[in-house]
Amino acid sequence: MLKTDGIHHISAMVNDAQRTIDFYTGVLGLRLIKKTVNFDRPEVYHLYFGNVTGDPGTVITFFPWAKQLKGRIGTGQVGVTAYMIPKGSISFWESRLQKYQVSYQSSSRFGETYLELNDPDGLQIELVERAEGERNRWKLSDIPAEYAIKGFAGATLLSKFPHKTAEVLENVLGFTCLGQEGEFLRFKADGKFGNIIDTKLSASVRGLMGAGTVHHIAWRAKDEEQHQKWRELLEQEGYFPTEILDRNYFKALYFHEGGGILFEIATDLPGFTVDEPLSELGNKLMLPTWLEDKREEMVELLPHIEVKSLKGE
């Protein structure tokens, strides 16, 4: 049976590009690893953040567009994105969130303590201590490596039909069901990052796509050969996957699972150093080949953005 190792990346929609950079680099300490455009709407940035090398299971991406309406988190969406922090670091992160005046609260499930917070656009985030996964070698001067976010811990899915979502997680994507606690059903993949998925069983409001919501969640495929096998399997199971698309840094296909959530399957390779060296990731606006002759026009059209140091209170 085919099995994914877990999350490849998560893509969300926000209003303000600079505000998003400030929060995810300045507060959470992630690296801006790619500055490009939405291939389908090139007047909009596509920003990628992750660990030092942008490994699968560490990457959150954003489509920042000032004109889009506010969305509503609900069924048919990823409700919460969870980040993995090292064991013994939760007090550091409580102090850091206080420093930057980010409201948070604590909760627990499946024997783990979570810090719950929202990003500036209202996306729901959790921080949870886990021993697995390598340390993130990309660090800010005020976030030592022993406290830095390592990558995704996982995500919470808000499904219209949780039993249908559970079915695709187990029987198509190859997750193992670990059991139920309260209103959550937990699944696990074999990867080191983004390997724990919770599906909420209780009813929620209907999700509305827009700023402050997740657009899709992508699962890992080892290579293009396995990627093609996923597509064949999805067709056999009646999920109507898209054609395989070249996203430059990975190959992608998309499908809606039975609970209404947009799933993607993305290849681990070629990765984010395919068009710029590791040391320069995120510094330059990278355009697909068919837009390169319009670079000056694109630079004028897109708002100025930069990674900068923040000063907390």
From TrEMBL:
It comes from the Bacteria. Residues 6-130, 151-268 form the VOC domain. Pfam families: Glyoxalase. GO terms for molecular function: dioxygenase activity. Gene3D superfamilies: 2,3-Dihydroxybiphenyl 1,2-Dioxygenase, domain 1. Keywords: Dioxygenase, Oxidoreductase. InterPro entries: Extradiol_RC_dioxygenase, Glyas_Bleomycin-R_OHBP_Dase, Glyas_Fos-R_dOase_dom, VOC_core. PANTHER family: RING-CLEAVING DIOXYGENASE MHQE-RELATED. This is Ring-cleaving dioxygenase. It comes from Heyndrickxia oleronia.
